[in-house]
Amino acid sequence: MTATPFHDRDGSIWYDGELVPWRDAYLHVLTHALHYASCVFEGERAYGGEIFKLTEHTERLVEGAEILGFKIPYSVAEIDAACRTTMEANGIKDGYVRPVAWRGSEMMGVSAQSTKIHLAVAAWPWPSYFSPEALEKGIRLTMSRWRRPAPDTAPVKTKAAGLYMICTLSKHEAEAEGFEDALMLDWRGRVAEATGANIFLVMGDGRLHTPTPDCFLDGITRRTVIDLARKRGIEVVERAILPEELAKATEVFLTGTAAEVTPVGQIADHRYTVGEITRTLRADYEETVGKVPAETVPAV
Fold first, then answer.
1. For residue 118, what are the β-bridge partners?
2. In this prediction, what percent of the chain has a pLDDT beyond 70?
3. What residues does each domain of the chain span?
4. 12-124 adopts what CATH topology?
5. Distance between CA 273 and CA 253 in Å, rounded?
6. According to the model, what pLDDT value does residue 298 have?
7. How far is residue 252 from each of residues 56, 75, 219, 242, measured CA to CA in Å?
8. Are 122 and 98 spatial neighbours (Cβ–Cβ below 8 Å)?
9. CATH of domain 132-293
10. For this structure, is 159 an active site residue?
11. SS3 of 84, please?
12. DSSP secondary structure code for residue 27 in this structure
């Protein structure tokens, strides 16, 4: 069954200050963002009508635009309100919210200081990123041949559109090989992240290990899960992790707005069980965002 294409849907999109019909939310083919990736975006999730950590996402969007050299012509409060308005206009209670800001089509070339800065917000229902069967057993990852760039070669702390080109390449190649996703190393050959989510490993010492986010996004969900783990008395270690250490992990999971807390059952030739710490933190996260009642959360 073919999914409904995103350009041909009912509903409304908030576009430069007003709601427009979904099918009319277009931009010109010579838009600077399309040719030169001068675009930042956010991925947000709503539960029960509330967007989780909305203002943190908006602040990151504004900061990301400034790092790319342009200023979004709306305040954080106005962008927050636009996200809520878009949710309400489309009747979304549980779903995904996508604010995106970009340079327009007034100039064509690498230099584009005089382009208009646009902002749009879309929202739609979105179930789990992976199938229930994959989540129960843990998803399967292959190793990507693409690496996360060094921080002096790209704006690695932003959700800039151009940074996701190698993620798309990696995920397409992984799916062609029968995997759900790919693990990316950084330019030094250290473990970095999956194509759209941060990674955590439970090692033999019982502690939770995660790569230091010095060349990739320090995800909002990542930080939330670190806080939840520490509340549970689970020690979290942020450090450089080498690929050979994957063989020593007993549990692995991913975190992200789309992925939420996703168990990993395999990375290349290494296999893992969906263990107690993974299940506990997944349940804690779902309780935090309002997905399950508190009494269903197990204890470690």
1. 102
2. 96
3. 12-124, 132-293
4. D-amino Acid Aminotransferase; Chain A, domain 1 (3.30.470)
5. 10
6. 37
7. 26, 38, 17, 14
8. yes
9. 3.20.10.10
10. yes
11. helix
12. -
- Find the length of the chain: 300
- pLDDT reading at 27 higher than 60: yes
Collapsing DSSP states into helix, strand and coil, what is residue 94?
A: coil
Residue 89 backbone class (left: φ over 0; alpha: ψ -120 to 50; beta: rest): alpha
pLDDT digits (tens, 9 = 90+) for 127-136: 777 777 777 8
- Fold identical between 12-124 and 132-293? no
Q: What are the E-state strand segments in the chain? A: 12-15, 18-21, 39-41, 44-47, 50-51, 95-103, 117-124, 139-148, 181-186, 191-194, 198-202, 208-211, 236-239, 251-256, 260-267, 270-271
Say whether pTM exceeds 0.90. Answer: yes
Where is average pLDDT lowest: 59-73, 120-134, 152-166, 215-229? Answer: 120-134
Q: Which of 159, 171, 248, 291 is catalytic?
A: 159
Query: Beta-carbon neighbour count of residue 150 at 10 Å?
Result: 13
At 44, list the tokens: 């947000």
In terms of Cα–Cα distance, which of 42, 71, 44, 40 is closest to 161?
40
